[in-house]
Amino acid sequence: MREFLIFFFVSAIIVSAFLLYAEETPEKLILPQEFYAIDSPEESTGSICLIWSKSPTEGKDIEYFIYQSTSKEGSFTEFEKIDSTNEKLKLSSNSTYFGLWKRNENYRYKEINLTIKTIRTTIKDISTGNELLSYTYEEPGETVEKFKTDSETGEEVFNYSYKDINTGEVKSGVFVISKRVDDKTKAINEVITKVIATRIDPKYFKLGMMRKTDLEPLMLPDIVTAQPRINFFKWSKLNNIVVLILMYIFVYYYINKAKKNPNIFLRKIAGLDAVDDAIGRATEMGKPILYSTGYYDASEISTIASINILGQVAKKVANYDSRIIVPCKWPIAMTVCQEVVKEAYIDAGRPDAYNPNDIFFIAGEQFSYTAAVNGLMVREKPAANFLLGTFAGESLLLAETGNTIGAIQIAGTDSVYQIPFFIAACDYCLIGEELYAASAYLSREPRIVGTLKGQDMGKILIVLAIVLGIFFVTLSSFTYNEYFNLIKYFFTVR
Amino acid sequence: MQLYKRRIPLTIVFIMGIGLIICYYIPLKTSDNILNESMKWVRIIAAFSLVIGVYSLMRSHYIKISKQSSGWAYSIVMFIFLIITLIAGFGWGSKGKSFQWIFDWINVPASSTVFSILAFYIASAAYRAFRARNVEAAVMLVAAIIVMVGRIPFGDMIADKLPQSLKFLSPSSLVDWLMNKPGMAARRAIMLGICLSVIATSMRIIFGIERTYMGGKD
Question: Mind giving me the DSSP string for A264-328?
């Protein structure tokens, strides 16, 4: 028993001493095995990537140090220190640059821009146009330029401090940019900043590592550099362009096919079949038809799709000798709508019936437009409302007002969050892609109908991509084979 | 006429369309500059078009006043406020106190008022939409009730009363499931359809197949 107790106490002392020693003596830092530099893929802004293998001793209190020098033999100065646990350091965090290779988990990187901009700042007196100060500096550098605005008065000053590129002299000062005169902020001086030249400043880099408590970092012997190159293609978008080209081929093929055989089957879209009924009802009731192209201007594709439908609707309206009112949210959309409706009336052989005053601008403000269209509905009491295009918060406000006046309502939008509102408040709703298909459906022009078939092939392609994507992701997680990851990368949206 | 009304616009559309697609895939500074520059053009053209818009607005309201059609008095109000806003804007600038006062104390409250009506419209639209007329409407009604309960504090109260093993049945968990699984699947399906349609419509416009937006046919 006595021997056992002695043995126990001695063992406990030895173990405690060992643990104490282990706690006090930190693990020896192990430097990364590899360190190299490459040109940053996918961009041409003059940056390079420093890549190094993960150190097994990375941890909370460990930092990586990057040192830089203008020459290989020159003295290296600290460029940046980064926490070794920083997620942004991981090569796997940037799949756009480095793909989904499994080995990326074991590498770290830092992107460094080597471009030096030469910038000229000129301060001018606005009233006289005289140049008050002009100086040139390089960026990145030690120059500081800061606008400061007084939150109460709105007055603005410009603080500057720069190192003259020629003399190396540091100068600083303050200019008043605007001041308060008679209850109004008046601009006095103007600051013009212009990049007059850019150049690549080649640099050499070294990597170090240390604990936050250490005094000196452990340095890797390697000195690396890379030359930034011009890249002409975003390889991460390869899948994107492949789909685009395939879509173009499908559409081109089906347009030609439609030209030869115009009887292409189109599934019935109830909302578009009801267009004739809606216009007919309005004609019988002697009431106008209201058409809205939505929230966006004519530069948006959904607005163009809506304007295309407007052309078809206006032609029917002209044939029925009814009246169409088009309140517009944007002036450009208004002029395009006017032209489209005018041509539709000419096409229908009734140019005299066209009234440009029925297509007018209301307001660019969302709710001003909504209030005005609602007011219009209540006053004019249109028998049919067409709400086609992209809509936002105003969708239900318009549709419910239309509902209360008893108008037959055909709505269509590509804004996913507004579709339920239209379904609830309108008689017919074109969901998403139906809005874009409407022009082809109504015109039945073979060339346009052909593009719909091309679209269907695109859908088959996407379904295939989804099925193959699921298959390869499942395979890669079972087999840990990184080539499956590579295929998964191709199917990833970037 | 054919040259000015058709060929030149179609050529511009083709060059700009194809050019901007190519720029999207080329990681050069020039590509970014072209994209940014074209966006500036759009803004400049939009700014010029505002004059046409204001003219159209004044004209339509002038016609209303001259014909004394229904609600013509509101058109006078529109003219008064248009003139006041123009004087405030041109006289003291858009950062001036007067213009800001109009914006802060007339525009913003008026917009908020119109937006707030949405709450009542949602109630009336929901009443119509959620009548359980058939199986689909009944499913939607149940889903809507779960979402509504899950989004209010009462849902959290129910969740607090549930044992740990049944927490997954709490209204907020069910809402998350409804929104992130079946809801998200439907949204994505619609989005995919929309994206393909946008590509096809863009192609029709770029290659001059769709010309309705230019007015008339060939």
Answer: ------HHHHHHHHHHHHHHHHT--EEEEEESS-TTSHHHHHHHHHHHHHHHHHHHHT--EEEEE
What is the CATH number that goes with domain A270-444? 3.40.50
* pLDDT exceeds cutoff 70 at A367: yes
A18 touches chain B (CB under 8 A): no
B53–A334 C-beta distance less than 8 A: yes
Q: For residue A433, what are its two tokens?
A: 């892609």
Q: Which range is least confidently modeled, A5-14, A160-169, A224-233, B133-142?
A: A5-14
Interface test with A, best of B213, B214, B217, B218 (most A CBs within 10 A): B213
Report the phi/psi class of residue A406: left, alpha or beta, with left for phi > 0 and alpha for psi in -120 to 50.
left
Each residue of B147-196: pLDDT tens digit?
Answer: 999 999 998 888 888 888 888 889 999 999 999 999 999 999 999 999 98
Q: Do A459 and B201 touch (CB under 8 A)?
A: no
Residues 475-494 of A with CB under 8 A from B: none
**What residue ranges of chain A are covered by domains with CATH 3.40.50?**
270-444
Mutate to test the interface with B, among A178, A251, A433 (most CBs of B within 10 A): A433
**Surface-to-core class of residue A151, CB atoms within 10 Å of its CB (0-12 exposed, 13-18 middle, 19+ buried):** exposed
Of the candidates A112, A106, A111, the one whose C-alpha atom is nearest the C-alpha of residue A53 is A106
Q: Out of A4-8, A166-170, A227-231, give the one with best mean pLDDT.
A: A227-231
B24: chain A residues, CB-CB within 8 Å: 237
Residues 166-195 of A with CB under 8 A from B: 183-185
Q: What is the pLDDT of residues B60-95, one digit of tens each?
A: 999 999 999 888 898 999 999 999 999 999 998 887
- Secondary structure of chain B in HEC code, one letter for each residue: CHHHHHHHHHHHHHHHHHHHHHHHHCCCHHHHHHHHHHHHHHHHHHHHHHHHHHHHHHHHHHHHHHHCCCCHHHHHHHHHHHHHHHHHHHHHCCCCHHHHHHHHHHHHHHHHHHHHHHHHHHHHHHHHHCCCCCHHHHHHHHHHHHHHHHCCHHHHHHHHHCCHHHHHHCHHHHHHHHHHHHHHHHHHHHHHHHHHHHHHHHHHHHCCCCCHHHCCCC
**Interface contact A153, partner B, CB < 8 A:** no
pLDDT tens digits for range B18-62: 999 999 999 888 898 898 999 899 888 888 888 889 998 999 999
For CATH 2.60.40.10, the residue range(s) in chain A are: 35-113+202-232
**What is the value of pTM for the model shown?**
0.79
Give the CATH architecture of domain A35-113+202-232.
Sandwich (2.60)
Q: Is A55 on the interface with B (CB under 8 A)?
A: no
Could you give the 3-state DSSP secondary structure of residue A119?
A: strand
Show residues of chain A in contact with B57, CB under 8 Å: 360-363
**What does the domain layout of chain B look like in residue ranges?**
1-63, 70-129, 130-218
State mean pLDDT over B134-148: 89
pLDDT at A476 over 80: no
**Listed residue (A345, A286, A287) closest to A317, CA to CA:** A345
User: A397-429 pLDDT, tens per residue?
Assistant: 999 999 999 999 999 999 999 999 999 999 999
CA distance A25 to A232: 52
Per CB-CB distance under 8 Å, the chain B contacts of A334 are 52-53, 56
Contact B210 A448 (CB under 8 A): yes
Would you list the DSSP string of A50-74?
EEEEPPTT--TTEEEEEEEESSSSS
